[in-house]
């Protein structure tokens, strides 16, 4: 007899089997989750920190730079929070501890779930690899980002910046026009990394481009992949697929992500094959693709890279090479619009050169531009946090004043971590730490236009924070650039940091010479805030976060 009237007994049996299978699978999953998240002891149980606000998401929804600084004021420089499924996470902004964590990459590596998430989108790129694979790939690619190679790319940076000016002011109208500048910045930086690294033209700024990803197949793939909240944010479903490999077939990746990955692999293989055909004429070239192809065709097994690894670097560097630089430049334009005196001072400096095509060395010799960029990068690190996982037990040293007190009042002068401990490196919080940078660490410090003119007369020109000797504490920040953590430090520092800074300075040089920027009428800088709970701190509107990444500014040509 059928359990449900009108349903064939055979179908009833099938449904019973399906229900039993689902019940067994559910029980197995619950067992796995319990063992993975809750059964293991919390090694940080005695460490103070904010209350866990969600069994499912932990403190993740509250995670941002401002909140981290608040927690640091409450609990000290070392405390714990909770990640997905309430996993305990060690937070420390102690500089001695960070020096240890960032330099001991054989112990502290990206968590497997992070590496899996990146590899699912980009393949086995530099951001995914660890240990000798990572070191080998960096050795091969480093010449593409050397000072001498970046010097050769400066004319390309400047030319593309002028294309952006034309893109933003096609009619040469002298009046103000308001639009979202993020689209153009993403377009120009995507064009630059495509041409500079791989000889691939996205045509993102060309007629017919959409102002962000261009008209090419790869550009469309990028838009599908990175404008989706499903791939930008670590949702519980993505998290579960990361920690339980068996779920990856049951809960497949979003269709658009799979299609985008295939498109990137297809274009990457086309670029690789084309470069192999031209390999004879590329012996002395130092662009990224030429270096990768040279290693791909090397006779030595120790130097050879597989096709898979070479192809994976192409989308990796397209993304890393344009997302962060476009975001940093957007925050720079927001600062210029918010502080007109800074904009005037910077324009005075760049116009004093008397040329619209300065060399790399000339750009580096502009002190106000240099120190303006330093302040922007300090205050608006495009990536505010990075993750590490302890691959074995360790004891993390602390600075002399970095001891932490547990919930029982016991003082600890080091941090004992066990294998598998999750660690969050608070990049943005270190860059804004008042104990390092002073009471105004959370503010954009600048000098007035008139003070700048006075400094010019005396042969000086620089924003105030960088004019004086840096605070003693800043000298210990373990970063590769300007005593900041923006580009990290240690073996996994950002390989393209020189490239990114030269590109940003070139863009600002041209944009400030040719255009004037202002906030929309009635707006303040506080109306534009970083995206919360996102890997890259893109600007968005405080009042309308659901509208996504945007930076509306009023823009007009100068001298038209």
UniProtKB/TrEMBL annotation:
Pfam families assigned to the protein according to its UniProt record, in alphabetical order: p450 (PF00067)
Protein's name in the database: Cytochrome P450
Pathway stated in the Swiss-Prot or TrEMBL entry: Secondary metabolite biosynthesis; terpenoid biosynthesis
UniProt-listed Gene3D superfamilies: Cytochrome P450 (1.10.630.10)
Keywords: Heme, Iron, Membrane, Metal-binding, Monooxygenase, Oxidoreductase, Transmembrane, Transmembrane helix
Keyword Secreted attributed: no
Repressor recorded as keyword: no
Residues binding heme, per UniProt: 494
Taxonomic placement: Eukaryota, Fungi, Dikarya, Basidiomycota, Agaricomycotina
Cellular localization per UniProt: Membrane
Co-factor(s): heme
Coiled coil feature spans: none
Gene Ontology cellular-component terms listed: membrane
SUPFAM superfamilies: Cytochrome P450
UniProt GO molecular function: heme binding; iron ion binding; monooxygenase activity; oxidoreductase activity, acting on paired donors, with incorporation or reduction of molecular oxygen
Family membership: Belongs to the cytochrome P450 family.
Origin species: Mycena indigotica
């Amino acid at each position: 007899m059928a359990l449900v009237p009108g349903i064939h007994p055979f179908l009833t049996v099938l449904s019973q089997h399906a229900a039993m299978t689902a019940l067994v699978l559910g029980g197995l999953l619950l067992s796995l989750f319990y063992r993975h998240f809750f059964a293991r002891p919390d090694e940080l149980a005695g460490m103070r920190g904010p209350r866990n606000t969600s069994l499912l998401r932990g403190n993740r929804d509250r995670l941002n730079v401002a909140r981290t600084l608040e927690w640091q004021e409450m609990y000290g420089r070392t405390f714990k929070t909770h990640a997905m499924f309430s996993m305990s996470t060690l937070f420390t902004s102690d500089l001695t501890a960070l020096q240890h964590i960032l330099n001991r990459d054989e112990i502290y590596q990206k968590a497997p779930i992070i590496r899996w998430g990146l590899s699912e989108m980009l393949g086995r790129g530099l951001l995914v690899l660890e240990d000798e694979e990572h070191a080998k790939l960096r050795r091969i690619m480093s010449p593409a980002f050397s000072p001498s190679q970046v010097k050769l790319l400066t004319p390309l940076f400047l030319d593309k910046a002028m294309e952006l000016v034309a893109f933003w002011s096609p009619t040469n109208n002298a009046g103000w026009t308001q639009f979202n500048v993020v689209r153009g910045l993403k377009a120009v930086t995507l064009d630059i990394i495509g041409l500079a690294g791989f000889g691939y033209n996205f045509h993102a700024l060309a007629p017919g481009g959409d102002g962000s990803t261009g008209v090419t197949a790869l550009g469309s793939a990028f838009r599908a992949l990175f404008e989706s909240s499903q791939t930008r944010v670590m949702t519980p479903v993505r998290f579960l697929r990361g920690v339980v490999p068996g779920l990856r077939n049951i809960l497949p990746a979003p269709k658009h992500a799979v299609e985008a990955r295939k498109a990137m692999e297809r274009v990457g293989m086309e670029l690789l094959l084309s470069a192999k055909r031209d390999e004879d004429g590329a012996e002395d070239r130092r662009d990224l693709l030429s270096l990768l192809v040279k290693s791909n065709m090397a006779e030595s097994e120790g130097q050879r890279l597989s096709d898979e690894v070479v192809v994976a670097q192409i989308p990796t560097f397209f993304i890393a090479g344009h997302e962060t630089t476009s975001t940093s430049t957007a925050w720079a334009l927001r600062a210029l619009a918010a502080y007109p005196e800074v904009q005037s001072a910077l324009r005075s400096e760049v116009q004093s050169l008397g040329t619209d095509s300065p060399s790399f060395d000339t750009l580096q010799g502009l002190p106000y531009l240099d120190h303006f960029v330093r302040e922007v990068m300090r205050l608006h690190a495009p990536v505010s946090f990075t993750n590490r996982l302890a691959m074995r037990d360790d004891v993390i040293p602390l600075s002399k004043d970095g001891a932490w007190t547990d919930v029982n009042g016991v003082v600890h002068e080091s941090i004992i971590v066990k294998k598998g401990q999750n660690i969050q490196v608070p990049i943005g919080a270190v860059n804004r730490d008042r104990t390092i940078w002073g009471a105004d660490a959370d503010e954009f410090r600048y000098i007035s236009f008139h003070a700048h003119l006075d400094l010019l007369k005396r042969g000086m020109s620089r924003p105030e924070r960088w004019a004086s000797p840096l605070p003693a504490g800043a000298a210990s920040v373990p970063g590769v650039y300007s005593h900041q953590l923006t580009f990290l430090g240690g073996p996994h520092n950002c390989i393209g940091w020189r490239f990114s800074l030269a590109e940003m300075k070139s863009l600002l040089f041209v944009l400030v010479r040719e255009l004037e920027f202002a906030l929309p009428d009635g707006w303040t800088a506080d109306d534009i805030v970083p995206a919360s709970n996102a890997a890259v701190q893109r600007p968005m509107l405080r009042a309308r976060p659901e509208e996504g990444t945007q930076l509306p500014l009023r823009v007009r040509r100068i001298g038209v």
